C-alpha cells in the first residue's frame, strides 16, 4: 500500500519537527582479574574500569562534534551498567550500554570514537537508526503549518532531539513526514509524563485538518 505523507504524534508541544536525530547504541565490555574482595590488590576490578568509562561518557552528555540546524549536536549517555558476580569477589567483567544521538555521524565511526575514548576490552554496535530530514517546502510541512495556525498555535519549525517511528518509515517506505504532537518531550519517560486534555483535543483537530488539506 502506497503512503505519501506521514505525521507522527510524538510530544513536540505542537511544534512541527522537520528533522530528527539518529540513534546508535553501543555495548562496551571491560575485563579484569577476579580475587577475594578482602585482597583487592590481588585482582583487577572490571567494575572500576567501567565506572571510569561512564564518567568519560558523561562528559559528552552536553554535546560533541559539529551541530546541525534544528537538532543541535550529537550527545551520548551511559544508560545501563552490569557487573560483578558476588558481593565478596573483585569483579572480572563489567558492561555498559551507551545511547548516542547522532547528527550525521556514521555508526562505524561512532563505534571507533568510543573504542578510542573508553578503551574497552570489547565494544559492539547493537542498534542503529538513521536521522531524518524533510524538505521544509514539502506539502506535508505546509499543511501542518496551516493546520497549526488555524488551531490557534504559532507555527514553529524545529527539530526532534529523540528518534521516532518516522526515522524508520522514511527509510523503508520512502515517505515525507513530520513529527507533531501534544505535550513536551521534556516530560517523556519521567514520573511527571502527561498531556493536557485541551492540547490533546486541539491536536486531534490539527491532524484532521492536515488530512483535509493534503487531500484537497
Automatic annotation (TrEMBL):
Pfam families: M20_dimer
Keywords annotated in UniProt: Hydrolase, Metal-binding
Gene Ontology molecular-function annotations: hydrolase activity; metal ion binding
Domain Peptidase M20 dimerisation: 19-119
Record keyword NAD present: no
Keyword Ribonucleoprotein: no
InterPro entries linked: Bact_exopeptidase_dim_dom (IPR036264), Peptidase_M20_dimer (IPR011650), Peptidase_M20A (IPR050072)
Listed name of the protein: M20 family peptidase
Native species: Caldiarchaeum subterraneum
Amino acid at each position: 500500500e502506497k503512503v505519501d505523507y506521514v505525521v507522527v504524534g510524538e510530544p513536540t508541544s505542537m511544534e512541527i519537527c522537520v528533522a530528527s536525530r539518529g540513534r546508535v547504541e553501543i555495548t562496551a565490555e571491560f575485563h579484569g582479574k577476579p580475587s577475594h574482595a578482602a585482597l583487592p590488590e590481588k585482582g583487577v576490578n572490571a567494575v572500576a574500569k567501567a565506572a571510569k568509562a561512564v564518567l568519560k561518557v558523561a562528559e559528552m552528555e552536553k554535546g560533541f562534534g559539529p551541530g546541525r540546524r534544528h537538532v543541535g549536536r550529537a550527545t551520548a549517555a551511559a544508560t545501563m551498567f552490569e557487573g560483578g558476580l558476588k558481593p565478596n569477589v573483585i569483579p572480572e567483567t563489567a558492561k555498559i550500554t551507551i545511547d548516542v544521538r547522532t547528527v550525521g555521524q556514521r555508526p562505524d565511526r561512532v563505534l571507533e570514537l568510543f573504542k578510542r575514548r573508553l578503551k574497552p576490552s570489547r565494544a559492539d554496535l547493537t542498534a542503529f537508526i538513521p536521522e531524518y530530514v524533510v524538505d521544509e517546502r514539502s506539502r506535508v510541512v505546509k499543511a501542518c503549518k496551516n493546520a497549526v495556525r488555524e488551531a490557534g498555535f504559532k507555527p514553529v519549525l524545529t527539530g526532534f532531539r529523540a528518534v521516532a517511528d518516522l526515522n524508520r518509515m522514511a527509510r523503508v517506505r520512502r515517505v515525507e513526514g513530520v513529527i507533531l504532537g501534544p505535550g513536551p518531550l521534556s516530560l517523556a519517560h519521567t514520573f511527571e509524563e502527561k498531556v493536557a486534555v485541551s492540547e490533546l483535543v486541539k491536536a486531534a483537530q490539527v491532524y484532521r485538518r492536515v488530512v483535509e488539506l493534503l487531500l484537497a
